[in-house]
Amino acid sequence: MKLALGPVLYYWDRDTMLWFYEEMADAPVDIIYLGETVCSRRHLLRLQDYLDIAERLAAAGKEVVISTQTLIESESDVKTLHRIADNENFKVEANDMGAVRLLANKVPFVAGAFLNVYNPQTLDLLAGLGATRWVMPVEMSREALVSINGNRQTSPKTEVFAYGRLPLAFSARCFTARHHNLQKDDCQFKCLDYEDGLALKTREGQPFLNLNGIQTQSALVHNLIGELDTLQDAGVDVVRVSPQGHHTGEILHLFRECMEQRLAPAQALAQIEGLMPAASCNGYWYGKPGLEFIRSNPLT
Amino acid sequence: MQPDKIELVCPAGSLPALKTAIDNGADCVYMGFRDDTNARNFTGLNFSFDNAKEGVRYAHAKGRKVLLALNTYPQADGWQRWTSAIDNAAELGLDAVILADPGLMQYAAKTHPDLRLHLSVQGSATNHEAINFYHEMFGIQRAVVPRVLALAQVEQLMAGTQVEIELFGFGGLCVMVEGRCALSSYATGDSPNTRGVCSPPKAVRWQDTPKGLESRLNGILIDRYDAGENAGYPTLCKGRFDVEGETYYAIEEPTSLNTMELLPELIRMGIAAIKIEGRQRSPAYVEQVTKVWRQAIDNCLRDTGNFAVKPSWTAELGKVSEGQQHTLGAYYRPWK
Question: In this prediction, does ipTM exceed 0.90?
């Protein structure tokens, strides 16, 4: 299995981003996804900046993939999509069918998690259009994945979102701006104040969701570091870690140690807990509500 | 398209609702079968094959259309349930099927080339490139656009495609992009994409407590009501939550979409159809909403320039609206 780093889902300032990817150039990760996938108002890094970072990371030996925005609303979003699809140096992760249209039968692409591949027929269709890898929808279970991988006719690689707050929903509305009583068009870029998003709790204090601009995430951190063996058995080729404000490099290191079997899953789980912004969940992998956590490798 | 027609597409959760919609002036009704092939997979709702047959007979006898929502994503272990539904739709002579899954569209286009295909709102197509993808690949003839675009964005999108556009006009409001929301499965295990439900009734619990009436979804506190407050169904994005110490409707108020005042604009833009949400609602709701919207559309088509929403219409619709509140949603940009 290979280890991938997903795109940064939050809005970090320019220096933080440049520093982060400088660190990632030396991190034990095989594949790096780059690009603004959440909100087109986030502009501290432009597409050209991402392409420059991509060159740097590729020179460091990483496979670099440019990710497209998930919710394409305006003509300027569509133009950016064209520019990404037309880039000649890097593979693209399509997060919208509009992106698939621009990439199909031209260049190989990664079919992102938001294309909603829930059955082998749709996977085969995308593979026929040039998808060489697909990312399982975050809510899909191990059982469903096994069924897809056992019934498909084509052979794109399978990637799973294996660590991070789950990107659960996208809206036209910006919930971070709403929290500050601002309209989206005048959001004052409040997302810059929340490096790991803005916590939403129930009225009795249970951490429930995490507001990240127009994206709503899980409050808990989806964490499959204890499941690497079952991922492998289900035919997973790539596991994805989603960046967080701190400790991303250490988390990648723990995943790598575990994948190389230098660290037992139970130990990895114990060590990673101190690096997480919230508690673990993994219910989706077991076909349960996503917020549940099932300990398959109990600490002894 | 000439601005002399805009179809009114009404919800039919049952045969009585279907007949009510037709009798009150719906141009089209949309329905689903009794399983997870559609996104209103609730107990006691939807159509058997024979019910559907009677519905189609009734509608066609009056020159109206029947559309079938097959708008969930076929799960890996149930593919044949969805293809059987397509086959049944073709056999029943339905006027179109509303689909979200590309694999299923491919099956429909290959197996029943004469069956008209509409792209469901669950397909999350918010730009012309995405809509054209489905058109070129599978020949979809109409797209239902998610309730996230501003009207100006819808118009831009229309400039880039020949596919007919259908918009939601009234009813429950999804704040999230349809087809891209897993909040319900995160909380309960079931979502629109996987099981055709959001915030499913089986996960709902009501509890009277000293602090007030509480609504919970799989144990998660969605809202708590003081005496005298109207309690609403605990759709999880419409609860009151705590963000940085402030308790409020952090995602959306319990409110309904109502775009009636935009009708002249929708007609001018050449929108093909207006969809009324609510297959889970009663025939009484369908009657009320269909009647009012029929009058409004007819008025507007007769004299677009002088169209004004009558206070009596708003009052009628208010009686059946969630939370008795209306919003223009994302069509009105500041809502975002």
Answer: yes
Percent of chain A clearing pLDDT 70 (strictly above): 99
Q: Do B181 and A170 touch (CB under 8 A)?
A: yes
pTM of the model: 0.95
Confidence of residue A300 (pLDDT cuts 50, 70, 90): very low
Band the pLDDT of B69: cuts 50, 70, 90.
very high
Q: Which of A31, A29, A33, A30 is nearest to A8 (CA)?
A: A33
Residue-wise pLDDT tens digits, B118-136: 999 999 999 999 999 999 9
Q: Do residues A132 and A117 make contact, with C-beta atoms less than 8 angstroms apart?
A: no
Question: What residues in A contact B108, CB-CB < 8 Å?
Answer: none
Determine what percent of chain A is predicted with pLDDT higher than 90: 97
Give the closest residue to B139 by CA, choosing from B115, B122, B123.
B115
Q: How far is B84 from chain A (nearest CA, A)?
A: 15
Whole-angstrom CA distances from A139 to A118, A162, A296, B264 are: 10, 12, 19, 41
Tokens standing for residue A113 = 């998690």
Query: Which chain B positions have a beta carbon within 8 Å of A287's beta carbon?
Result: 189
C-alpha A271/C-alpha B212 separation (Å) is: 42
Distance from CA of B250 to the nearest CA of A (A): 7
What residue type is assigned to position A285 of the chain?
A: W
**B226 at interface of A, judged by CB pairs closer than 8 A:** no
Test the B interface: residue of A79, A81, A86, A101 with most B CBs within 10 Å = A101
Q: Give the whole-angstrom CA distance, residue A191 versus residue A176.
A: 7
A38-50 confidence digits (pLDDT tens): 999 999 999 999 9
Domain A2-164+222-276 has CATH 3.90.550.10: no
Structure confidence at residue B331 as a pLDDT band (50, 70, 90): confident
Segments making up each domain of chain B, as ranges: 7-173+255-335, 183-248
Among B104, B149, B182, the residue with its CB nearest the CB of A172 is B149
- Choosing among 3.60.110.10, 3.30.70.890, 3.30.450.180, 3.20.20.70, the CATH entry for B7-173+255-335 is 3.20.20.70
Please give, rounded to a whole number of angstroms, the shortest distance from the CA of B22 to a CA of chain A: 33
Q: At A104, is the pLDDT very low, low, confident or very high (cuts 50, 70, 90)?
A: very high
CB of B175 within 8 Å of a chain A CB? The answer is yes
Name which of B53, B31, B29, B52 is nearest B40 in CA terms.
B31
